[in-house]
Design brief:
Layout lengths: L1 E4 L7 E4 L5 E4 L12 H7 L6 E17 L6 E5 L2 E6 L3 E21 L6 E10 L3 E2 L6 E6 L1 H4 L10 H9 L2 E6 L8 H8 L5 E5 L2 H6 L7 H15 L5 E4 L18 H17 L5 E4 L7 H7 L8 H17 L2
Parallel strand pairs: 10-11, 10-12, 12-13, 13-14
Antiparallel strand pairs: 1-8, 2-3, 4-7, 4-8, 4-9, 5-6, 5-7
Helix pairs in contact: 3-9, 4-6, 6-7
């Protein structure tokens, strides 16, 4: 019987905390500018897309950690199928019995994608158990809460996790709820990570928080894209304009722009960079990802998709994103 500790992927760094706990950071903490980026730092310390895997013929996974009251659950997959969904709220300890499995079965552990969370222990005790390192083309996807996917029932039901599973990609989820504001800390972190494909879904947080005006949004997006392009000159980049949010389409925010204005401006910036010679930069019209009826039915708060809505997004985006490779 082998005891194999989890080896995690999908984050930038792991921070040791008191008592042997670990916190997972999806951005380089050195790039923050307090107090302005405190909200971003909070979201980036949530373990969206962070996971580990083993090859084994069976055994028991021991999990221990602490999660806030809004913490998402753990997911355990066996050969790609959800086998266990476990609560992560409060101080907890789980023993997950895998039973007897076929030789070389892949067992994956996905950490809670939303909520303040620290991990104390993640170990598989099993026969012929070995850690399985991530494989597949490396995909980084940046965005807002609609990429972070707080409303998804579990970490493997976010649209980025679903797209990665369908396309066999190695995921780095850079979704930061409420904090997709084209921060230099994000561009710098993405610039330092290996990537075969980079996608960005931008605009909705800038609309909601009235962060950028007609004068400033375009240049801010241009600067972000050019910074990432300088670090990844041969990597396809795909910009997804904001998905539909029906009450916001024609309602002006505090700087006088509607969501439709941010969508048009996003596409305009991409077109300008394409015209300047960036042949590996592409755009997906976010208004086509969900129909108006789906936006009405599957966005309960008019902004965030539910679990089924994230599934629809994955259905539409998986083949489109794959086409750019």
């Amino acid at each position: 019987m082998a005891s194999v500790a989890a080896q995690f992927t999908g984050m930038f760094s792991i921070q040791p905390e008191k008592g042997g706990a670990q916190r997972f950071h999806r951005l380089d903490r050195a790039g923050y500018l307090p107090p302005w980026t405190d909200g971003l730092a909070n979201r980036a310390a949530m373990a969206a897309g962070v996971r580990a895997a083993w090859r084994t013929t069976g055994g028991t996974i021991t999990l221990a950690g602490h999660g806030a009251v809004d913490c998402a659950p753990y997911d355990v997959l066996v050969d790609g199928r959800l086998a266990h969904r476990l609560p992560a709220v409060g101080s907890h300890r789980h023993e997950v019995k895998l039973g007897r499995l076929e030789p070389n079965t892949l067992v994956e552990l996905w950490l809670p994608h939303f909520g303040d969370f620290t991990l104390q222990e993640a170990v598989l005790d099993g026969e012929n158990a070995t850690a399985a390192l991530g494989s597949g083309r490396r995909w980084i996807t940046y965005g807002s809460s609609i990429t972070h996917c707080q409303q998804a029932a579990g970490p493997t039901q976010t649209w980025p996790a679903l797209v990665a599973a369908r396309n066999g990609w190695h995921l780095s989820n850079m979704g930061f709820a409420g904090e997709c504001q084209l921060d230099p800390a994000v561009a710098d972190t993405i610039s330092r990570m290996p990537a075969d494909l980079i996608s960005l879904c931008v605009g909705i947080n800038s609309y909601n928080a009235s962060v950028f005006s007609e004068r400033s949004y375009g240049p801010a997006l241009q600067g972000f894209l050019q910074a990432v392009r300088a670090a990844h000159p041969a990597v396809p980049m795909v910009v997804i304009t904001p998905v539909l949010s029906l009450p916001r389409e024609d309602k002006a925010n505090e700087v006088g722009w509607t969501l439709a204005d941010y969508r048009r401006a996003t596409a305009h910036v991409v077109a300008g960079l394409q015209a300047a010679g960036d042949t590996l930069l592409h755009v997906i019209d976010g208004a086509s990802v969900l129909t108006e009826q789906e936006a009405f039915d599957r966005l309960p708060d008019t902004l965030h998709p539910d679990t089924e809505g994230y599934g629809l997004m994955a259905d539409r985006l998986a083949p489109q994103l794959a086409s750019f490779l």
